[in-house]
Amino acid sequence: xxxxxxxxxxxxxxxxxxxxxxxxxxxxxxxxxxxxxxxxxxxxxxxxxxxxxxxxxxxxxxxxxxxxxxxxxxxxxxxxxxxxxxxxxxxxxxxxxxxxxxxxxxxxxxxxxxxxxxxxxxxxxxxxxxxxxxxxxxxxxxxxxxxxxxxxxxxxxxxxxxxxxxxxxxxxxxxxxxxxxxxxxxxxxxxxxxxxxxxxxxxxxxxxxxxxxxxxxxxxxxxxxxxxxxxxxxxxxxxxxxxxxxxxxxxxxxxxxxxxxxxxxxxxxxxxxxxx
Length: 276
What we know:
alpha/beta, 5-stranded mixed beta sheet
């Protein structure tokens, strides 16, 4: 069964050299300063919460949860670390790792989204199944994944500026990537909070919608003018076919377009070929 809890065994000390990183590790970037702080704490107090691993071979274990603790332990020179060994398959290991990271809030929201995406893909499960496992609604999973619509460079800017997940989702309201980058720069430069950012983006979207309406209106006016031009052209052609050498003269300036139809006067006494 997909959602069975893995079998948990007792805590044992395992040499660091026998522990390999998880193949589906969620976290990609680690703060060196925070790792050093954790290393100092471990050096003074030891590792309070054991790491979680699963046995791969007689001499090798795969890390499921606790990579920050593992890295910090290496920094402060520990040879072994306390571990809880669980018996689980690849799918259960991935789900177990994701659940712990989500519950401990060790990941930034982009890493959370990437982790969710990878587990759905690797484990061949649906968003609904994952939502059940982590105790959330399917909408929670869908909302988490939305931030992945932002490009890599946009994510870097957001994280560097310490913007929140709500910032990211507000920025996603703008579909044009170039305009989105400009808006993101404005938010960062002006140090806007979430509410200010949302109001700023709503104003931009409102202006964009007004421009679209004006453009549609202009297109309709241009279309009407072209119909009018065709009507004039057809009238002039009809007169020419009837033997009247009519001429259409068009002039244009900044304020208006002027159409003049010139029809030569008939000679005095000319009856147009009609007899009394």
